[in-house]
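ok, trying the design again with the full structure, not the truncated one.
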């Protein structure tokens, strides 16, 4: 299998796990991504759009839906009175933590047939690709 095929198929595999986990927690995959990003800290809307790579209208809809579910809240940005930041609510923190832990557990099972050295190599090379391409921290390292 070539590098393109391996990376694309790996992405599909991880996305399927992520989607299944989100569905079981009663959220969408984009909502799960939003919650995982916000675990680190609140984000301004512009910064959040860049991290999630979403257009302003798509991000606004995502935040609106997630806010209606009581998982995030908009709060004033202390550095800019015209702007808002998006933060997890207590319920959002709880759900994000559970969703994150379960999703990590499921993804960690994917390479179960590899030994420790192979798992380290598997993490190392894509980790370099991520670092080289300055991918935002959309999912924290455990």
């Amino acid at each position: 299998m070539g590098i393109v095929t391996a990376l694309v198929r790996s992405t599909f595999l991880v996305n399927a796990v992520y989607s299944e986990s989100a569905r079981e927690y009663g959220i969408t995959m984009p909502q799960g991504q939003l919650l995982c990003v916000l675990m680190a800290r609140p984000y301004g809307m512009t910064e959040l759009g860049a991290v999630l790579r979403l257009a302003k209208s798509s991000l606004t809809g995502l935040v609106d839906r997630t806010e209606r579910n009581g998982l995030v809240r908009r709060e004033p940005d202390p550095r800019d009175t015209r702007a808002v930041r998006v933060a997890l609510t207590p319920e959002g923190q709880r759900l994000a933590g559970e969703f994150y832990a379960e999703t990590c557990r499921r993804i960690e099972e994917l390479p179960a047939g590899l030994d420790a050295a192979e798992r380290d190599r598997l993490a190392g090379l894509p980790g370099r690709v991520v670092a080289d391409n300055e991918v935002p921290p959309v999912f924290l390292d455990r």
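Keeping the full-length input from now on. The first helix runs from residue 3 to 24.
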